[in-house]
Amino acid sequence: MKLLAAMALLIVPVLPVSAAAQAAPSASTAPAPDYRQDSAWLCRPGRTDACSANQDVTVIQANGKRKIEKFKPAVAPQFDCFYVYPTVSNDPTPNSDMNPGPEENLVAATQAARFASKCRVFAPLYRQVTLTALKAFITGQPVTMDRDTPLADVTAAWNDYLARDNGGRGVVLIGHSQGSLVLKSLVAQAIETQPIRRNIISVMLLGTNVAVPAGKDVGGDFKRMPLCRSDQQYGCVVTYVTFRADSPPPANSRFGKVPDAGMVAGCTNPAALGGGKAVTDAILGAKSAGPGSAPMGPWTTDNAPVTTDFVKVPGLISAECVSQGGFDYLAVTVNADPKDPRTDTIVGDVVVGGAVLKDWGLHLLDIPIAMGNLVDLADHQAAAWRGVPYKK
């Protein structure tokens, strides 16, 4: 019982939230928040909030040399990003309230704020299914979570964004875990069949399964939006789940496999959309991968402290989309070299009671493992959407 409770508190849950996110919004009787009020947003451009958190990063080369790379937000961003955060709320109720806690602010600072170097970032608060509800669910306690409200809220926020802010601009949709599941339903129900689809630069659904027919890029969860296979392609979907290459998904994993006959989980490597293995531009937490992660040890053999919240390790991490054992996933390799002074390992596995939950893979690193690639990809695709040559 203690182990199960710890799991609910420390991991980013998916199983019960999947049903929540895929339910029809009409069943919810709770009125949607008023997204005309800026207080209903975790992030909006032009103000100081979670998405204006410091993004300076310490770059550590293989030889141990380091420098601090200062973050520069875009002065006049040419496109927008609409971000929906994963399951993080510690509110005591089955669904969260609309008051952001440190957990919502932290995850937005970690997953969304870096996109502000390229786009205007919008992130609605929403009454997500909480960790409290999932703890009760896992431990067999009665719980009455509203499974329709997350999608209803995000739909209302999206409609408000279109009415007040979009003005014909291109937009990248970004989600992780519960956020990805909510966005997946939003796209299927309210975007890909509507004229607004022409404004969609890309949809980044990370840490969730997106069903596609085996050998094809479209026709499963989405009928019109294909998987992205080039950084010059737009109106497409970027999606993957991550596992260590030397620790593939076990049979009980919920990631990388879909139940529908003839369907597979889509995988698009943001470092190599055309396929193959490539070094990723990982931007990792300096101290850990977040709640549920083991702490990170020294980054270099001299134990020198890192003074920024984020670390870049050029050349250390590679990734490749693979199909193995009935699973499709992004296989992550740490290119360790015991001869150099830089670390030979990274944290990111979900750990409970000292045990690694291998069925969760590197879920905590779904975005950080390719953060730099995702940000640059959004910028490349936005340029293609605007029909202009890409300028870095």
In sequence order, what are the helices and strands, one letter per element? HHEEEEHEHHEHEEEEEEEEEEEEH
Structural category: alpha/beta
Query: Number of folding domains?
Result: 1
**Approximately how much helix is present in the residues?**
10-25%
Query: How many strands?
Result: 18
Mean pLDDT: 91
Rg from Cα: 20 Å
Q: Name the beta content range.
A: 15-25%
For the largest beta-sheet, the strand count, sense and barrel status come to: 6 strands, mixed
- The geometry reads as globular
The quaternary organization reads as: single chain
- Total number of helical segments? 7
Show unreliable segments.
1-27
Intertermini distance: 52 Å
Order of neighbouring strands in the sheet with most strands? 1-5-4-6-7-9
What report would you give on this structure?
Keywords: Signal. Residues 1-23 form the signal peptide. It comes from Sphingomonas oligophenolica. This is DUF3089 domain-containing protein. It holds the Pfam family DUF3089. The protein is an alpha/beta fold and 392 residues long. The protein has one domain (2-386). The protein has seven helices and 18 strands. The strands form five sheets. The chain has a six-stranded mixed sheet, sandwiched between helices. Strands 3-2-14-13 form a four-stranded mixed sheet, with no helix packed on it. Strand 17 (351-352) and strand 18 (355-356) form a beta hairpin. The termini are far apart. Residues 1-27 have low confidence and may be disordered.
